[in-house]
Design brief:
Order of helices and strands: HEEEEEHEEEEEEEEEEEEEEEE
Number of domains: 2
Low-confidence stretches: 1-16
Distance between the termini: 71 Å
Shape: elongated
Largest sheet: 6 strands, antiparallel
Radius of gyration: 33 Å
Mean pLDDT: 85
Length: about 260
């Protein structure tokens, strides 16, 4: 057995990119770059003295030394696997992000196609009437109750997946999420609003859906999807700043596939 070991047991630790301890049976060790067994002796390259040396095989604890080498190899292999998986995940994320257009907006990937959602025109309905919301020129705030609305009781953007995944490329670093809309006669209510007298503070009450958010491919691109399967109804992906009444709305309707 020893002759077979002497003939074939060759460990080149330089390939591991690290030194190892060559243990002796008295409990001490030599720090070596590589070693090999030659019949009745062990030849090794001493890191301390930068030269090749030999020691009788009977003085060397090959079992302990070999175990440490095996553990080192296993640890390096595990680390390499983790790094490979991380690299693959990064590449997949970059490829995913590359599919989404650079223009701000809401998107959905459907097979090999990217579906872009049209920004909806919204309005604020107060007791004074309706005013179209525009980001560049906010409406005059009137104290009292109001609602942010979209025209029509149903969206023309139909989604059949109860767990849809959306991509949103932000135009500004604002909040975003999925709102459940309330259909009423001729409109869909995006959220209820209270405008406080005197201070003109705007208190918004959206019916937000609990979602997961994941930033991908840069600071302005995110993936967003509901934590639970959606119920049939009207929804919207909304970018907004709380208290500013400046929502950007991309509406959709979830209808189960038949």
């Amino acid at each position: 057995m020893r002759r077979i070991l002497a003939a074939f047991f060759l460990v080149v630790l330089a390939a591991l990119g690290a030194n190892v301890k060559l243990y002796l049976k008295d409990g001490t060790y030599q720090l070596v770059r590589e070693y090999e067994v030659k019949t009745d002796r062990v030849r090794f390259y001493s890191v301390e003295r930068s030269q090749w040396e030999e020691v009788p095989l009977t003085l060397v604890d090959l079992k302990r030394t070999g175990q440490e080498v095996a553990e080192r190899k296993a640890a390096l292999a595990k680390e390499a696997k983790v790094l490979s998986e991380e690299d693959r995940a990064i590449r997949e994320q970059e490829e995913e992000a590359a599919r989404i257009p650079q223009n701000p907006g809401a998107y959905m990937v459907e097979g090999k196609e990217v579906r872009a959602f049209k920004l909806a025109e919204s309005s604020v309905h107060t007791n004074k009437g309706r005013s179209v919301l525009k980001l560049v020129s906010p409406i005059p705030v009137v104290s009292g109750k109001a609602t942010v609305e979209l025209q029509g009781e149903h969206s023309s953007n139909v989604v059949s997946n109860p767990n849809p995944e959306f991509y949103i490329r932000l135009s500004d670093q604002e909040r975003f999420g999925i709102f459940k809309l309330t259909p009423q006669k001729g409109v869909r209510v995006v959220e209820k609003v209270t405008i406080v007298p005197v201070t003109k503070e705007i208190i918004e009450e959206p019916a937000e859906v609990e979602v997961f958010r994941k930033q991908i491919g840069g600071q302005d691109l995110y993936k967003v999807w509901p934590q639970k399967a959606l119920e049939s109804g009207e929804y919207a992906l909304v970018q907004y700043t709380a208290g500013k009444l400046n929502p950007q709305i991309w509406d959709f309707s979830y209808q189960p596939a038949r």
